[in-house]
Amino acid sequence: MYKIVLCCQNGASTDLLAVEMEKAAEQKGIEVSINAYPYTKLDVVIDDADLILLAPQVRFKLKTFEKQYADKGVPFMTVDPSDYGLLKGDKVLSECVAKIESSKTEK
């Protein structure tokens, strides 16, 4: 099972994308847990994540978070703003799975 944490400013708007990603996972037969949180909760949720996905409104924090949480070994990535706005759950899910898998082989 892939555990994806989707972070945004307040944890609300990302719920829509998370739902679309879950639908895509179900259609593809991929076991996934996707939860949306405000980025301020990252300290609490990172230890149980395979990937931290940053929404466009907080993508400017990517480098800061990568440095701050480097010891956790959890990869970070950002959502393309157009994919986010158009709720392209299938595309975002595929990119997340690819990132998780590639990070496993790098370890």
Task: Briefly summarize what is shown.
With 107 residues, the chain is an alpha/beta fold. The protein is built from 5 helices and 4 strands, in the order βαβαβαβαα.
Describe what you observe in this structure:
The chain is α/β, with parallel strands linked by helices. The protein has a single domain (2-95), classed as Rossmann fold. Helices cover 46% and strands 20% of the residues. The chain has helices at 14-28, 42-45, 62-68, 81-85, 89-106; strands at 2-8, 32-38, 51-54, 76-78. A 4-stranded parallel beta sheet has the order 2-1-3-4, sandwiched between helices. Helix 1 (14-28) crosses helix 5 (89-106). The model has no long low-confidence stretch (mean pLDDT 93).
The largest sheet is: 4 strands, parallel
Put simply, the count of helices is 5
Please, how many domains?
1
Strand order of the largest sheet: 2-1-3-4
Instruction: Measure the end-to-end span.
Output: 18 Å
| CATH fold descriptor | Rossmann fold
Keyword list:
single chain, 107 residues, alpha/beta, Rossmann fold, 4-stranded parallel β-sheet, globular
Helices, strands, pairings?
Layout: E1 2-8, H1 14-28, E2 32-38, H2 42-45, E3 51-54, H3 62-68, E4 76-78, H4 81-85, H5 89-106
Parallel strand pairs: 1-2, 1-3, 3-4
Helix pairs in contact: 1-5
